[in-house]
Amino acid sequence: MSRKEMERFVQTEKQKQFDNNFFSAAENYEAWEEIDFKNAEEIDGENTYEIKAEDLKSYAQACFDQNPLMNDEEAAKKSVWGGLVPHPIFVTPIAFWCIGTKGRGNWIRIPGARNPGQEIEIYENFRVGETIHIKIKPYDRYIKRGKYYMINQIDMYNQNNVKKCSWFITLILPRTKEDIRSFIKGQRGYQD
Amino acid sequence: MSRVTFDSVKAGDALPPITHPVNQDAFWRYAVASLDYNPLHTNPEWVKTAQPFKVPYTVAHGMMTMSFMTTVVTNWAYASGLKLTKIAAKFTKPVAPGWTIKCTGTITEKHVICPGKNYVIVETKAVNQDEEMVAFGEARVLFPD
Predict the structure, then answer these.
(1) Domain enclosing residue A62, as ranges
(2) Mean pLDDT for chain A overall
(3) Mean pLDDT value across residues B117-143
(4) Domains of chain B and any CATH numbers
(5) Which DSSP state fits A184?
(6) How confident is the model at residue B19 (pLDDT cuts 50, 70, 90)?
């Protein structure tokens, strides 16, 4: 039922293409205890993200942000920025798109994953026309007050290998694959 | 609005706040735009039994709350060409549909380095309609000239 309700808001090409069923590939998601820190080399994300004006505007509008620099291409062109400015948290759709469903970091799609907080370093704003690729590596993993935290470092680069930002993406995850399966079945997969 | 300059700001300055009511439509719209379709935000039926946050209702994306908090800073900074170089937030209480979220920002530190490298730290906060804190954070804002 909620899937149909959400379709009202689909606007952009990427939103139409994106695999938005977080249950379908859940058997492949990395549970907290499965994440391989012995192989901590950074790897490429599954996909690249070509930034279009519709992507920036859709994100700003979903945050109720009416800043003309984020929504009005003509106004933004005349500003000191020379073009549309992304909302700083626009890193979110880039990460979900680029990480994909199969490889490292796919734990961000685990049904029931909880967000305790985030930290993002911005070196340069994204711009329309750039194609972003990401490098991902496991950064830290810890237990605190009965909750299992996982952090990946995601570095985002444009097509010229200019680093745009670094995101220490942190989530509280189900500890085991069985816990993920509980969530898939609609049961609570946490013990805290 | 007059241009913000490094000389014109000081620790203790409050940025104009923003307020947004949120509901399930807002969660769905944000899920589509962010590509984050975690059912704890999008599926009211699933969450009744799965309850990741031990509550039987959907909650807002933390990144949506963080976006609101960041907007307080960008509303103030971007028109003057100031640059956000770091944003951080911690989420302290899940946001339920039907709540109203108010976000504030206060300059707490003024780092006097040299022209082109001066920056300020803005502490941000988000509370609900009952003044309960739902998130806090900070942003680093660079003055490029």
Answers:
(1) 39-184
(2) 95
(3) 98
(4) 6-22+59-142 (3.10.129.10)
(5) H
(6) very high
Task: Sort strands A163-172 and B100-111 into parallel, antiparallel or unpaired.
Answer: unpaired
Tell me whether B38 touches chain A (CB under 8 Å): yes
Judge whether residue B1 has pLDDT over 70. no
Best mutation target among B22, B32, B48 (most A Cβ atoms within 10 Å) is: B32
Matching residue, tokens 């900074």: B77
pLDDT (tens digit, 9 = 90+) per residue, A139-167? 999 999 999 999 999 999 999 999 999 99
SS3 A133: strand
Q: Is residue A19 part of a domain?
A: no
- Judged by a CB distance cut-off of 8 A, whether residue A56 touches chain B is no
**Contact residues on chain A for B54, CB-CB shorter than 8 A:** 188
Nearest to A134 by CA among A107, A172, A161: A161
**Does residue A179 sit within a domain?**
yes
Residue B61 has pLDDT above 70, yes or no: yes
ipTM above 0.85, yes or no: yes
- In this complex, the residue of A89, A109, A110 whose CB is nearest that of residue B63 is A89
Tell me whether residue A49 is in a domain: yes
- The 10 Å Cβ neighbour count of residue B8 is 10
Q: Hey, are the CB atoms on A122 and B83 less than 8 Å from each other?
A: yes
Phi, psi of B71 (to 5 degrees): -60, -35
The backbone torsions φ and ψ at residue B109, rounded to the nearest 5 degrees and listed phi first, read -140, 140
CATH number at residue A163: 3.10.129.10
Residue A1: band (very low, low, confident or very high) from pLDDT cuts 50, 70, 90: low
Enter the pTM of the model.
0.97
| Among the ranges given (A23-37, A126-140, B71-85, B95-109), the one the predictor scored with the smallest mean pLDDT | A23-37
Number of domains into which chain A is organized: 1
Q: Where are the beta strands (DSSP E) in B65-118?
A: 83-91, 100-111
Domain assignment of residue A30, yes or no: no
